[in-house]
Amino acid sequence: MERRTVLAGMAAALATASGVRAQSLPSGMRPLLFHDDAQFWFETLRVMGATDYGGAQIGEAVMTASRIAAGDYNGWHAEWKATADAVARQARASLAAGRRISARDGLLRVSNYYRNSEFFLHADRRDPRLRQAYDESVRSFRDAAALFDHPVSVVEIPYEGTTLPGYLYRPDASARRRPLLIAHNGFDGSVEEMHFLGAQAALERGYAVLTFDGPGQFGPIHRQGLAFRSDWEKVVTPVVDFALTHAFVDPERIGLMGISMGGYLAPRAAVFERRLAACIANDGIYDCGEAALSFLPADARAEFRRGLLAPVNQEMDRALAEAMKASPVTRWVLTHGPYAFGVASPRQYMARLLDYSLVGLAEKIACPTLVCEAEEDVASTGQQAQKLYDHLTCPRTLVRFSSAEGAGAHCQVGALRLSFGRIFDWLDGVLRP
């Protein structure tokens, strides 16, 4: 294989292996929009999937996306912001008129639309649109949180001299001890989005829920510039400490769920944080670097790894730039990766990514663990979910989601009610008496 071809192919492969949103969709979910831009279509589907828990309306999402040209990052921001602005005006008018439910429903969608609007803008960390969208997304969600029958509490979790943003959900105000689900997002999501990605589903089943953003995720990267870290136990342990300051939390029944790249992060934390009674990896990831290297012939893998780790490698930098031009997914991943990992270049991001591995660690997880696997999830290239499951020595369950049932995409986007039904049926069996 020609050297340049190897480098370009590996760039795309390693990008998709970072545990982020899938670059292709199941055969039964062909793009309705953005036929030549899988990333734009997936982010549209991701928003539409949030409809299950109040994060979108299908009509609003489809009409917004239909106004956007594939690959136009500025147009993506402008149109999703326009929709968010319009829905916000309606929601705040309802709020002013005392129409609590209408206001709450609108503000939840507004929060998700603003989050989505800045998704492709991370090439320039100084772009003022980033902070504007973040602030509006958070403000809208917090205003909605106050309008639930039992309001969702805004919390700041102590962490290494600063705080991590989060939300604490309770089914009611009683002092009764309840099982707690701690949940976080992955490579590119927000703690506000976690309302639609498990928090509301768990609350409906009687769980208390604590969601948070860790370093590299939406809140800390916008507020403090905190970048990702591979030793996620250093993040989760302070969160568990905080959770246990609340008397209604049953210390024997604490579960942790990670979404997307959280499918690596949550199991990593569970290796060291022994107060966890359950762990959910949705979808499971065993070794980000190994998954990417599996795309190459065996004799090319070591060379590429050395190239990533070299202080200077202009040839590889050029190949990565070419890969970004060739693939809309690679373009976005290699734009967002340096932003979230706090490095200067795509190659430095991918070099950091090699540290995100559970090799030699997965066997040390003690709590019951659920590994999810979507049938056509590119983030699980190299059978990542299966490998994680195979290396577990704790009580373990592997749940597969199929394309035929509409749940084959990354983290089952488009089938969230189905997905969380199975996930929480499993968790009920572990955390309830």
Rg, nearest Å: 21 Å
Helix content: 40-55%
| Main sheet: strand order | 1-2-4-3-5-6-7-8
* CATH arch. level architecture of the domain at 150-287 and 361-433: 3-Layer(aba) Sandwich
Break the fold down into its secondary structure elements and pairings.
Elements: H1 3-16, H2 38-49, H3 58-66, H4 73-96, H5 100-117, H6 128-145, E1 153-159, E2 162-169, E3 178-184, H7 199-204, E4 208-212, H8 218-223, H9 233-243, E5 249-259, H10 262-272, E6 278-282, H11 288-293, H12 298-309, H13 314-326, H14 328-341, H15 346-353, E7 369-374, H16 384-391, E8 396-401, H17 416-431
Parallel strand pairs: 3-4, 3-5, 5-6, 6-7, 7-8
Antiparallel strand pairs: 1-2, 2-4
Helix pairs in contact: 1-13, 1-14, 4-5, 5-6, 9-10, 13-14, 14-15
How would you describe the overall organization of this protein?
With 433 residues, the chain is an alpha/beta fold. The protein has a domain at 150-287 and 361-433: 3-Layer(aba) Sandwich (Rossmann fold). Helices cover 48% and strands 13% of the residues. It has helices at residues 3-16, 38-49, 58-66, 73-96, 100-117, 128-145, 199-204, 218-223, 233-243, 262-272, 288-293, 298-309, 314-326, 328-341, 346-353, 384-391, 416-431, and strands at residues 153-159, 162-169, 178-184, 208-212, 249-259, 278-282, 369-374, 396-401. The chain has an eight-stranded mixed sheet, sandwiched between helices. A hairpin with a 2-residue loop joins strand 1 and strand 2 (162-169). Helix 5 runs antiparallel to helix 6 (128-145). The model is unreliable at 14-28 (pLDDT under 50).
